[in-house]
Each structure stands twice: as C-alpha cells, then as structure tokens.
UniProtKB/TrEMBL annotation:
Residue ranges: DNA binding: 66-165
Keyword set includes Protein biosynthesis: no
A Pfam family of this chain: Trans_reg_C
SUPFAM superfamilies: C-terminal effector domain of the bipartite response regulators
Keyword Phosphoprotein included in the entry's annotation: yes
Gene, per the UniProt record: walR
Keywords assigned by UniProt, alphabetized: DNA-binding, Phosphoprotein, Two-component regulatory system
Location of the OmpR/PhoB-type domain: 66-165
Signal peptide: none
Record's protein name: Transcriptional regulatory protein WalR
Cross-referenced InterPro entries: OmpR/PhoB-type_DNA-bd (IPR001867), Sig_transdc_resp-reg_C-effctor (IPR016032), WalR-like (IPR039420), WH-like_DNA-bd_sf (IPR036388)
Amino acid sequence: MKKNASFILMDSSLAKYLYNTLQDLHPKSRYANELLQGLADLMEGEVATLMLGMTGQGEHFVNVVDDGIYAGALEIHPKSRKVLHSGIEVSLTPKEFDILYFLAKNKGEVFTKEQIYQAVWAEDYLMADSNIMAFIRKLRKKIEPNPDAPEYILTIWGIGYKFTERE
C-alpha cells in the first residue's frame, strides 16, 4: 500500500549540503529555485518544516536508481552506457566507454596500461602500450574541455593513468 505522506527529520548539515548541491548542480527543473528558497528559509529559521510534493503521480521514479558517476560537468551512466558532458551526450565507442567507466568507478586509483588492458579486454588481444595510449588520447578529445591539459583522465608519469578524484 502506498503511503500518502512521510515525515523525515533533517539536521542543519544536511540542509546546508542539499542547498549547496542544488546551487552547484543547477538541476533542470522549474522547481529547483523554490526548493532552494525553502531550504534557505529553513536554515534561517523562517520556517520549521518543509513539505515536499511530487507533481503528477511520480510513477516514472518507481524502480529507478541513478547509477551515474559524476565528476564536474561529466556524467557516466553505465546501465545505459551514456556519457554526458555539460548535459550533452558524448558519443563513445564501446571500448572507449569501457575504459572510461573502469577508470571512473575506481576514481583516484592509479592503473598501469597493462591493468587497464586486462580489465577492459576479455579476449586475448595483442597488448601494446600504444593501443591504450591511443584510446586514452581519443577519449580525452571527446570528454576533456582541453585534451592537452586533462581534467578527468590524468597521466601519472612512469606508471599509467587515473581518473580525477574531484566530484
């Protein structure tokens, strides 16, 4: 049976986090500013309670889990195999996606070219450093604002690559 209402307590740190996150992400919703103002009112003590309601019935949220990995303006969605940069879809080959997803899900961890190769290629394939380097170069051209000064896929000289730790 579906509940009509749910009361959830929120402390000041959560309210501030939600407020800051909404300000930073600028969600594409006409209700975002109203929620921001409501959170501001809550933090300033002008109101003691916020009531949130869903437009329509909210059926499109049933069984939906956001599986995305987010870093700055980059979004990686493994279930749909979509990558967005600043809300615009980036077209990647299957291997480019696999490399990006592998690095992103292991954010901050440094991998050698061999480790990336072993994680992404299931079949035996002639592994050459230049193969991984070529994929990384093509990937950077597609996702990096400035491929010559990458923000997402970072080179760790003498070792390999890592995905940025920034949120």
